[in-house]
Design brief:
The chain is α/β, with parallel strands linked by helices. Helix content is 39%, strand content 19%. The protein has a four-stranded antiparallel β-sheet with strand order 7-6-15-17. Strands 11-12-10-13 form a four-stranded mixed β-sheet, with no helix packed on it. A three-stranded parallel β-sheet has the order 2-4-5.
Length: 716
């Protein structure tokens, strides 16, 4: 018997060695298939491909438990497909992660007493680049530690020159097709980070704030934000509101306001909610989306009150230069002094929009930005979804996606940050428009002949990530693109279905005329043991490497798969992982017993000795398990396959079959049965627990000189 079985299984000793052996063997690449897989006579799936593009990991930190789940789920699928003879590509990637990474680096700058504001953009960019490259080394090592059998020779980074070239090509095509435009629109703006966002990056948060009822001439208006009211010179009401029939559209009224007398204009608009407040409202077109739309319909002035840093502008008089939090109370004091505060509802519950990263109140701003017209792209994807050409796991995400696509709005892809892919465009301040300029050749405006300036903004990182499947495969003419696109599966978190998955569908179909993937597998969040979302502020973030080093990678992988249905959040407790460490030990101990029992036994797979009816029944049960596990994996029911394997291996095979076979220690049929069954079970277990199964495999007669990872999936 192999002497290694004389001591307990030690994952920390086994795993690095086994992974190096796999990597050195080169089979992670689809170009290096097993001999049996390359033979069309022995491989029913010969010539078929299976492609999975890894969601590129943000190169700004370390892996968390969610990453561990992603790597585990995808590796199980990839190993299964590879063992079934598919030419399998799992392409790994790293994401520059635009705004996300810049926020991380800004926190580093703050600790150093520095700020990105005022820094030379080129210096800042280089610092962040060096930061991500250093992080990347650690991240790639961590991905390996999870056992990910991806093709490292094809590793891609979202800032690779060929990726940028593809992104630029898409931008140019959108521009030429009239699907991207530069327009002055009201956008969501974070005063802390001083960048715009798309609607998906805004977090709705319920808050309790004072609701102020203010006297505005003959009207009473209600607001939670008196600091925005300096520019209010329009009072709006519904044309059918009986309370205000005496007032006519366009009528002028004189009234006392915050900084003195003003002239206000009456506006009638059917968008007004007559049930809210008093039914009359002033509008702040520069700082409110609904107000902006009203002002646009009526051709009203739009005046900026709050600057990009969240401070009041000179229009606020003596309050100019104040932050909103400082100014609000003082403004109310002044209004009270003038007798213009009717009442205050001190505990008004409402929803506000905040930055998803820093929780700062979003301050809408009117800015010229690049927008993509999304409806034409969405309509094509909707047709494909309704035709059943995209499968969602779980299925309810199809309805969620369809609903979002049907109500889609134009996408602001401009970001006022340094880190990312620069927008290749020139801007005309005179015409307030822009022109795509990939060759950096334009100097004067084609419309007015005025001098152009370079656009200093970067793309929303989701714009480049939305092109990941075809860009990473070398669109348009790379052999990999021709061979492996469209991909078979996109596996990622359900929380980014709109950010990423749906945008990949739209951009992939638009550029390649093919959907980028056929199946979408969406997992839920990985929560802490109490079911709370992990966050650094709570101090409950689980580092998967802490668990793998303590209990072994196989234990972690089983811990995040068993019982984890797609789309459902998983509460991850350390005890859960610890329990599967015992299962790794059980596999090791089973292997030791069967090896001891079969010493000197010549195992011929195709010529069994005489088998008892009991042995035949057991092998039939193993065959039944093979069938069920195969069907589960083919239909991405990983959680069911893992649970079946766990219970059969431990409770049926170890606790019952092996124990009962000990009474037949000299029965050759029973020994052959144990070897045959264990060969199958090790193979079935391998995608889930690759390290312990690979280490055990090589010590058996059936595994001599071979890798389990490249062994054929058992037939049934």
């Amino acid at each position: 018997m192999d002497p290694k079985f004389l001591k307990p299984y030690e994952p920390s000793e086994v795993e690095p060695r086994i992974y190096k052996r796999w990597e050195d063997a080169g089979f992670f690449s689809p170009d290096n298939q097993s001999e049996w897989a390359n033979d069309p006579k022995t491989n029913k799936n010969h010539g078929k491909t299976f492609t999975l593009i890894m969601p590129p990991t943000n190169a700004n930190g370390s892996l968390h438990a969610g990453h561990g789940l992603v790597m585990t789920v995808e590796d199980i699928i990839v190993r299964f497909k590879r063992m079934n003879g598919f030419k399998t590509l799992w392409l790994p990637g790293l994401d520059h992660a635009g705004f996300e990474t810049q926020v991380v680096y800004e926190k580093k700058l703050e600790k150093e007493g520095r700020s990105r504001f005022g820094m030379d953009p080129k210096v800042l960019y280089q610092e962040i680049l060096d930061f991500t490259l250093e992080n990347s080394k650690n991240i790639l090592s961590q991905i390996r530690s999870i056992g990910a059998s991806c093709d490292w020779s094809r590793l891609k980074f979202t800032l690779d020159p060929d990726i940028i070239k593809t992104v630029y090509g898409t931008f140019e095509k959108l521009f030429k097709d009239g699907l991207v435009y530069r327009g002055k629109r009201i956008i969501s703006w974070c005063p802390k980070h001083r960048t715009s966002f798309s609607d998906l990056e805004i977090k709705d948060e319920e808050r309790n704030d004072p609701l102020y009822y203010l006297r505005y001439g003959p009207f009473v208006i209600a607001t939670t934000r008196p600091e925005t009211k300096f520019g209010d010179k329009y009072v709006v009401m519904h044309p059918d509101d009986a309370r205000y029939m005496e007032f006519k559209d366009g009528q002028k009224i004189e009234l006392e306001w915050i900084n003195g007398p003003i002239t206000a204009t009456i506006i009638k608009d059917s968008a007004i909610d007559m049930a809210f407040g008093t039914g009359a409202m002033t509008i702040t077109p520069w700082h409110d989306t609904a107000d902006f739309e009203i002002a646009s319909r009526h051709n009203l002035d739009k005046e900026q009150i709050i600057d990009e840093g969240g401070k009041l502008l000179p229009i606020a008089g003596k309050f100019a230069g104040m932050k909103i939090g400082e100014a609000r109370g003082k403004i109310i004091e002044k209004l009270q002094g003038k007798g213009l505060v009717e009442k205050i509802d001190s505990n008004y519950k409402h929803v506000v929009r905040t930055c998803y990263k820093c929780n700062t109140l979003i301050e809408p701003q009117v800015k010229s930005q690049w927008f993509i017209k999304m409806k034409p792209l969405a309509e094509k994807v909707l047709e494909k979804i309704k035709a059943g050409e995209v499968t969602y796991i779980p299925s309810h995400y199809e309805k969620i996606t369809t609903h979002w696509l049907e109500g889609i709005v134009d996408w602001n892809i401009s970001r006022q940050i340094v880190w990312g892919i620069p927008i290749p465009a020139k801007l005309c301040d005179s015409c307030d428009t822009g022109f795509v300029d990939l060759e950096d050749a334009l100097t004067t405006c084609p419309t007015c002949s005025k001098e152009l300036r370079k656009d200093n903004d970067t793309f929303d990182t989701w714009f480049s990530s939305g092109q990941w499947p075809f860009a990473a495969l070398g669109f348009p003419s790379n052999k990999d693109f021709e061979t492996f696109y469209p991909t078979n599966l996109m596996e990622t978190a359900g929380e980014i279905i709109f950010f990423w998955v749906t945008r990949m569908l739209m951009l992939g179909l638009y550029i390649t005329n093919k959907l980028p993937f056929k199946t979408v597998y969406l997992h839920g969040l990985v929560l802490d043991a109490k079911g709370q979302k992990m966050s650094k502020s709570k101090g409950n973030v689980i580092n998967p490497l802490d668990l793998t080093s303590k209990y072994g990678t196989d234990a972690f992988r089983m811990g995040v798969v068993v019982g984890n249905t797609p789309g459902t959040s998983l509460a991850l407790a350390e005890d859960r992982i610890k329990g599967y460490k015992h299962f790794s030990n059980k596999i090791w101990n089973i292997s030791r017993y069967i090896l001891m029992r079969s010493e000197g036994f010549d195992f011929d797979k195709n010529n069994p000795p005489e088998l008892s009816s009991e042995d035949k029944f057991i092998l039939d049960e193993v065959n039944k398990l093979k069938s069920e596990v195969t069907d589960d994996l083919e239909n991405y029911r990983l959680y069911m396959a893992a649970e079946k394997l766990y219970h059969f291996t431990w409770h049926s095979f170890a606790d019952k079959i092996i124990e009962e076979s000990k009474d037949r220690a000299n029965d050759l049929g029973a020994t052959w049965m144990l070897l045959s069954a264990w060969e199958t079970l090790l193979t079935l277990l391998h995608p889930f627990m690759p390290f312990v199964t690979e280490e055990a495999w090589g010590s058996f007669q059936f595994g001599k000189g071979s890798l389990l990872a490249t062994t054929r999936w058992p037939k049934f």
